[in-house]
């Protein structure tokens, strides 16, 4: 069988279809995890520690327990015990808990705002008031806030980023190559702590439907991971834990794992025998769901006199928690982005009194790109060539970090189109020479890239004889458009109008698939949805060729094509029938298809490798044969007030190569969101801990600055046409992360072009602009 896929006129894949869930969101019909009205619902509020290090000497809960409406005050002394905790090797293996410590399991305090009690009451107001009456006596210790503290002890981890990356990697004798290089550049880059701050805080509603059956409404980017963690920690079989996440108000990585507040809510619901809802406050969002760690990167770059790289050495120092060795794997993008014959990377960590850091949009690639892309502009300045030219001289025609060819790469086209759109040819190459009144004007650019994290998942498609279909997968929608793009894929695959298809997600009772994170959802779920719909057609074709009354009787299955809800002979397209006629004659009310879709490793292409040929899969193209990445380029113009030091981005262009685009509108929105996220990180975001108390001093949206509309210019986003036959059944690459990668460097490079000052410490606030030294 060789079904035709959505290339015919009227196909909706790729078109800028308005979000199918948009009306529900703007009318309030969409229910988020804290909005399910359960019978007997109670409210949980956390009481947290004001100190970052020490020990609980005593807890007085009587006053809180006497307050009206209070049902329970839970502490480490009376909270129901867990079957498994993440502080053991077995617990770490069985759970996706990102932090190797579970609060309310003992009397030690390890970080500021660590939960020490949970009050459950009949109203949120009663619970909030009672939590203030919990009195704790502490024995205080001397905390460490940052890896830069003189008392902090740096160590070399064996692995970082949850064990995905070696703590020390090298190839090609990088140090010796650097020592022999005609050009030797060394630069150090500093990054503050960043917090995710989605609009919807972390929220959990837990209800024990029976003593051995649990349902959790959770603001989660990955419901299957949450289900597995809750099952392990409660000691229940996985099928007796149900996780529901219908809508998410943003996550950016902080909702990709299962954090302590979720477990505590489940324990509290068990303790009181009623549903419990807990919603983190905004300050608690800074201390409950991880962060992008404070870090320092040093790049040593060796090159020939004409600017061709001979060696790259990258070191990173950062702060981690008392239990875990988490660090973003910045070195990966430094290693793979250019033609680099010799490379070495080293990570160093220091334990401090902070909670464990976690994934934050493009973890590793975003901060790593700031270092390598700023250094590449330094190399261009040193050699005296254009920044784009220095990148072309070092263009990687394969992945030097692995030796593999690319599955596809359209980066040169991104450079060319981005330069055209920004007006690069009019850029003055001499820094500090372009003015517009009081403003210094500069133009900068940087490369973007994000890898494919191989995943797989399943989907179910049910086609009804009356002309509608329901398609299901246990995916989540971060707000990026999963409901919409999967409806498009299913509609085209089944040959139905868009309004006749309903795509359902966010429930572990649906077929399991990947979560929304690491730019894997679109590639994995679209592949599984397409193949599940394809399975429906294969079953219908078998019925048709066996049916004596069908015009397709006795045809070979591979001789039958499908298009717009109709089966037909490929050699005689007029000979065929609709699926509805076939199903009515067979007295079938519906037919179901299921399939597993793969993204990256393990995907098998069809004869020609095109999405239209996936019905006859043959030649295997494993990931081991190709390196798979999305690529792009960001360009921007900035205006720097010469007197005040303020930086404003006045023009922005992003051009991205990411395989097949499922929806032009939602894809553009993804890249816009990533770029805005990056502009915030480079110009204003900075979470600060008191160096003596290790306590956050700006844990709110009044003092933790993020961009608003007035900070962002009109932005241009374009996608280059790119076909990737190796990536998945649809040729789709992820775009959730690539939009932020390189953004900080593009802005910093533009500031250098405007002022002649190379700034290496984020954020680029006015004080740094005014005091920075001009580079000769």
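-> sequence recovered:
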């Amino acid at each position: 069988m060789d079904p035709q896929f959505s290339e015919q006129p009227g196909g909706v894949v790729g078109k800028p279809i308005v979000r199918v869930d948009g009306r529900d969101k703007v009318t309030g019909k969409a229910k988020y995890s804290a909005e399910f009205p359960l019978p007997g619902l109670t409210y949980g509020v956390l009481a947290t520690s004001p100190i970052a290090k020490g020990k609980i000497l005593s807890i007085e809960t009587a006053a809180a327990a006497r307050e009206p409406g209070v049902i329970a005050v839970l502490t480490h002394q009376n909270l129901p015990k867990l079957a498994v905790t993440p502080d053991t090797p077995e617990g770490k293996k069985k759970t996706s808990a990102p932090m190797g410590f579970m609060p309310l399991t003992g009397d030690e305090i390890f970080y500021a705002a660590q939960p020490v009690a949970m009050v459950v009451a009949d109203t949120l107001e009663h619970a909030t008031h009672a939590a203030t009456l919990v009195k704790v006596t502490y024995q205080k210790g001397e905390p460490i806030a940052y890896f830069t503290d003189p008392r902090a002890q740096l160590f070399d981890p064996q692995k970082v980023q949850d064990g995905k990356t070696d703590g020390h990697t090298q190839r090609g004798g990088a140090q010796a190559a650097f020592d022999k290089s005609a050009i030797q550049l060394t630069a150090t880059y500093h990054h503050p702590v960043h917090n995710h701050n989605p609009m919807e805080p972390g929220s959990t509603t837990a209800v024990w439907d029976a003593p051995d059956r649990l349902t959790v409404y959770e603001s989660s980017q990955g419901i299957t991971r949450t289900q597995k963690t809750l099952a392990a920690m409660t000691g229940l079989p996985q099928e007796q834990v149900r996780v529901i996440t219908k809508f998410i108000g943003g996550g950016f990585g902080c909702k990709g794992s299962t954090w302590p507040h979720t477990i505590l809510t489940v324990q509290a619901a068990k303790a009181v025998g009623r549903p419990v809802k807990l919603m983190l406050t905004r300050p608690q969002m800074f201390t409950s769901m991880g962060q992008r760690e404070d870090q320092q990167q040093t790049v040593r770059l060796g090159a020939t006199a004409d600017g061709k790289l001979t060696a790259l050495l990258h070191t990173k120092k950062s702060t981690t928690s008392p239990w875990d060795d988490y660090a973003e794997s910045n070195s990966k993008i430094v290693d793979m982005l250019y033609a680099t014959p010799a490379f070495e990377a080293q990570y160093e960590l220091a334990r401090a009194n902070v909670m464990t850091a976690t994934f934050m949009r493009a973890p590793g690639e975003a901060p790593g790109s700031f270092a390598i892309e700023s250094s590449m502009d330094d190399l261009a300045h040193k050699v005296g060539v254009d920044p784009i030219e220095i990148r072309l001289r070092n263009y990687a025609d394969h992945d030097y970090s692995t030796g593999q060819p690319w599955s596809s790469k359209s980066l040169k086209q991104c450079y060319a189109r981005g330069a055209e759109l920004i007006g690069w040819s009019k850029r003055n190459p001499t820094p500090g020479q372009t003015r517009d009144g009081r403003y210094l004007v500069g133009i900068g650019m940087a490369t973007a890239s994000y890898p494919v994290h191989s995943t797989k998942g399943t989907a179910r498609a049910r086609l009804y004889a009356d002309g509608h279909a329901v398609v299901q997968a246990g995916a989540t929608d971060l707000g990026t458009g999963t409901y919409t793009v999967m409806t498009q894929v299913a509609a085209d695959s089944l040959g139905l109008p868009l309004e006749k298809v309903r795509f359902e997600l966010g429930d572990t009772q649906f077929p399991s698939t990947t979560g929304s994170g690491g730019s894997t959802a679109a590639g994995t779920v679209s592949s599984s949805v397409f193949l599940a719909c394809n399975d429906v057609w294969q079953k219908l074709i078998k019925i048709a060729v066996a049916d004596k009354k069908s015009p397709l009787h006795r045809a070979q299955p591979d001789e039958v094509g499908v298009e717009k809800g109709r089966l037909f002979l490929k050699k005689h397209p007029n000979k065929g029938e609709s699926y509805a006629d076939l199903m009515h004659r067979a007295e079938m009310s519906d037919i179901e298809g299921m399939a597993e879709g793969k993204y990256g490793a393990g995907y098998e292409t069809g004869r020609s490798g095109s999405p239209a040929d996936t019905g006859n899969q043959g030649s295997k193209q494993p990931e081991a044969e190709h390196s798979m990445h999305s690529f792009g380029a960001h360009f921007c113009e900035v205006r720097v007030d010469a007197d005040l030091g303020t930086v404003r981005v006045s023009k922005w262009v992003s051009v991205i190569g990411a395989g097949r685009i499922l929806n032009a509108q939602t894809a553009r929105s993804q890249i816009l969101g990533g770029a805005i996220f990056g502009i915030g990180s480079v110009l204003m975001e900075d979470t600060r801990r008191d160096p003596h108390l290790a306590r956050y001093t700006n844990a709110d949206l009044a003092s933790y600055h993020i961009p608003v509309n007035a900070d962002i210019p009109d932005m241009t986003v374009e996608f280059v046409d790119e076909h990737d036959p190796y990536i998945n059944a649809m040729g789709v690459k992820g775009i959730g992360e690539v939009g932020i990668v390189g953004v900080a460097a593009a802005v910093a490079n533009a500031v250098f072009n405007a002022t002649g000052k190379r700034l290496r410490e984020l954020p680029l606030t006015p004080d740094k602009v005014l005091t920075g030294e001009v580079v000769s």
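DSSP finds 18 helices and 32 strands in the chain.
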